[in-house]
Amino acid sequence: MNSFAFEDVSAYGVLKKSFTNTNIDKAVEEINNIGYSVIHSGLKDVEINTIANQFDLLHTQYIHTYGHHYLKNIDEQNTIRLPLAFDRCFLEIAANQVILNILERLIVGQFILNQQNGIINPAGEKYNQSAWHRDLPYQHFVSSRPIAVSALFCVDDFTIENGATYVLPASHKHELFPSDTYILKNAIQTTAPAGSFIIIDCMVFHRGGNNQTKKNRRAINHVYTIPLIKQQIDIPATMSEENMSAHLRKLLGYKHKVSKTIDEFLKSRKIFSSFHASEALTDSVDLSQNKT
Ligand SMILES: O=C(O)CCC(=O)C(=O)O
Question: Could you identify the atom of ligand 1 that is nearest to the CA of residue 217?
Fold first, then answer.
């Protein structure tokens, strides 16, 4: 056997180092450093199959509702906007505990679901997500911490052949879109089994590949952001909060609705301050725990 163990990471001159124990720790470290990571959702094969079937059913129903001709004209025929508004199984994916655990570590303070999109990379056809982009498009800034994170749920296996997502590692750390030569040299294609999440700092440049197979590649993309960034579709206005837990209401942005009038804003402030008082209490407990 080779006497140099591959896992042995020796170093010198190092004063500070990160340690990872869990898969969540590993994902958080990768997203912070290179801007992306792949992690399994923990869903069983039977659950992933159910989601895949519901995805197709919903797509058929969606096309029927909005019209294929109309959707094709606006290049929306391969997208389902906000699938969770139609079927609870998609809400459960948006609230997947693995993802929420990672987001809590990445985004300091509060975050909300900004958007959920069912996406289809069509077999043998041009794909509308195949051009490089950031999920906060038209933005060229660098932030010290993530303010928006995407979680792409793989409904199908993501393979080289069916156009698995390309990422440009660490591009969230640089304002500019790099040169063509740099991109061609450094882009990485992230393959992943169905049921995985590809998690990407929204400022990382990425794109879908070309699907050269005979089967569509399906995924459900989620963008989670700090509440200051407006939702793509006003989720609280689209869905009733009846029968929704406080935890889901928070995730879906019911606590961060835009006040329509000054009067409404002032009323929301009153409710907000009593909420603050209870949060402050929790914070102070945390802080005192940190001190000991
Ligand atoms: O299809 C993919 O792999 C990438 C999807 C994508 O870039 C997006 O939804 O923003």
Answer: 1
